[in-house]
Design a protein that fits this description.
Distance between the termini: 58 Å
Strand order of the largest sheet: 5-4-1-6-7-8
Strand content: 5-15%
Order of helices and strands: EEHHHEHEHEHEHEHEHHH
Structural class: alpha/beta
Oligomer: single chain
Shape: globular
């Protein structure tokens, strides 16, 4: 069965240098709100639907109507391209290290389908991606346009994958890669695999607490990501029987974090068995 890999955008694929935040600030300011409304709440990991509603609440102390939401969206999309361009010109826009190499390898495989699992508006997502020249890798996805919950956004992307592949994708064949604890929690709630990029916008303590299967600073070490996805072999050639959880992605997570192929080598196991037997004999004397 084909594996479906969904990538978050901000902090996972690229860093836009705050372009989205500035565009949303401008949108609310144009509607009569304060200049820096986004300084009053956290945007990271939430869908644009939620962020737009929070921004409006902070600006006007009430929930936006559907008409208000559409106006925010319209103004945000108007201001976003110039803010992305500003970040590019001021060298604040960059791709997360190693991502292009990983995407190239994944896109050349027939058993892999890659897409987006992003809280951005669909139009906003591709505006942000345009300078990176990564857009062509992502022909489908789930977006934060209509969804408040990341879980619903991810499920929408997987449904699109079902249609593209003409098969029902099992949750165990879906892999989510993000940079905040919200990405990890949503993936787990859906029964999907989860991994975190630590060079993004997420709080590392919160990411650790969410317990993703795999964590890595960025994508520079392509091979450990391929191992987590189950499409590359462990270069150390460690025997499966010595892992903490045989034949699961946690093997690769452990290798990626420690550089060790297994938690206990066979000699370690033998030593512990001998020690336990010796202790029992001593107690019997």
């Amino acid at each position: 069965m084909t594996k479906v890999i969904l990538f978050d955008i901000d902090g996972t694929l690229i860093n836009t240098g705050g372009a989205g935040l500035r565009a949303l600030n401008k949108a609310l300011s144009a509607m009569g709100g304060p200049k820096n409304v986004c300084s009053f709440f956290e945007l990271q990991g939430s869908t644009d639907r939620v962020n737009f509603e929070n921004a409006y609440r902070c600006a006007f102390n009430k929930k936006p109507s559907e008409k208000d939401y559409k106006k925010i969206k319209e103004l945000y999309i108007k201001f976003l391209p110039e803010e992305v361009e500003y970040s590019v010109k001021n060298k604040k826009y960059f791709k997360i290290k190693g991502i292009e190499r990983l995407l190239e390898k994944l896109s050349n495989r027939k058993d892999i389908l890659i897409g987006l699992g992003s809280g951005n508006l669909k139009e906003g997502a591709y505006i942000k991606l345009e300078p990176s020249r990564l857009s062509h890798y992502f022909l489908f996805g789930g977006f934060g346009e209509k969804h408040e919950k990341r879980e619903d956004m991810l499920k929408t992307a997987v449904k699109d994958a079902d249609i593209i592949l003409k098969e029902k994708i099992s949750p165990s064949y879906v892999y989510i890669i993000g940079d905040t604890e919200k990405d990890i929690i949503a993936a787990k709630n859906c029964g999907y695999h989860s991994a975190a990029v630590l060079d993004g916008f997420g709080d590392k303590k919160k990411i650790f607490a969410a317990e993703p299967e795999f964590m890595e600073k960025d994508f520079a070490n392509t091979n450990v990501w391929l191992m987590w996805l189950g499409i590359a072999k462990d270069p150390k050639g460690i025997k499966r029987g010595t892992y903490i959880c045989p034949d699961t992605p946690i093997e690769h997570a452990y290798y990626g974090m420690t550089g060790n192929g297994s938690i206990l080598q066979s000699t370690d196991i033998s030593d512990k068995i001998i020690a336990v037997r010796k202790k029992k004999r001593n107690k019997g004397q």
